[in-house]
Design goal:
It is a single chain. This protein is an alpha+beta fold. Among the domains are: about 5-70 and about 240-345, DD-peptidase/beta-lactamase superfamily (Beta-lactamase), CATH 3.40.710.10; about 170-235. About 45% of the residues lie in helices and about 15% in strands. It has helices at about 10-20, 30-45, 75-90, 125-135, 135-145, 150-160, 170-180, 190-195, 200-215, 225-235, 240-255, 260-270, 330-345, and strands at about 50-55, 60-65, 70, 100, 120-125, 240, 290-295, 300-305, 315-325. The chain has a 5-stranded antiparallel beta sheet with strand order 2-1-9-8-7, sandwiched between helices. Strands 3-6 form a two-stranded antiparallel sheet. It is globular and about 65 Å long.
Length: about 350
Amino acid sequence: MRKRHALRHILPLTFGLLILGSHAIAGGQWRTDLKNDIESIDKVFSGELGVYVRPLAGKEAVTHNAEQDWYLASTIKVPLAIVLMQRAETEGLDLEQKLTLRASDYVDGTGDLLWVTPGARYSLNELNRRSIVDSDSTATDMLIRFLGEEAFNQEVSGMVPEGLGPITTILQVRYDAYREIHPGVSELTNRDFIELKTADTHKARYDMLLKKLDISPDEADAASVTEAFDRYYQRGLNTGSLEAFGTLLEKLVRGELLNEPHTDQLLGYLSAITTGDRRIAAGLPQDTDFAHKTGTQVARSCDIGVLNPRTPEDAVIVAVCARNYERLGEAEKAYQAIGRALNRTVL
């Protein structure tokens, strides 16, 4: 349930006051303090938070709505990278093998491949790097199609039996969500969705879509982009519990999913991402090693990763998602506050 509008006015002050005190609380007190901080942050947040924090040095996890399914957005690019590298290890897949960029590959979102002329060729390694570091959705979809969506999902289920997904291409997310407005969306091209993304507001995007479909508001099945995505989220695609994602990351850090070179390579990509500077990392000391991946969708976002990933005895799994907020900036303040809480209690 949404928090009262009045609570949002005290958000900056509350976040500033929550995280005070000393570092490295001994014994089990850190769990109580961190859980209290998270609950206080969520209380004044306009939406809802899910949080999973697990230090790997034999300490129990702190959870807050972590058992629920959360829309994972671009964080699904992490299991994608793992499956790709696993195939190199188990099936001899050559990661220097190149794929050709086609006009039909372009997907709206971040990344430079949108501006590259069709016909350019990229290695699987390079597409993987772009998918993680730059969150390039065009690179992501090229890799999912290469692996085969069904086979890819089966391999993810093998790594985390309790479930992440089913995972679709990023382009399919657009078709599935906007189809909630009108079935005619199935006739649109990837270029149409790129044009929709240029709209400044959800209202402008909705109006542009109706114009593309040549329908009136009365003929639409959803009255807004937000309503359409809310219905889409209920279908359970590209979702998972934060506990399940935490298990995946724990296996990665412990070297149970990839060999040492691939583990180091992927953690390096996650430490070098070009997104998420305004989320958890903004609440951590500047020298903190945080290997993570962010994701953003309509009224949904996540920041999921590992603190101190290269020393498992000091590593801390962190998975945070937010939903049903009015503005992304509000969610970013919540992420930052959680970063400060982590700094006080587990770093």
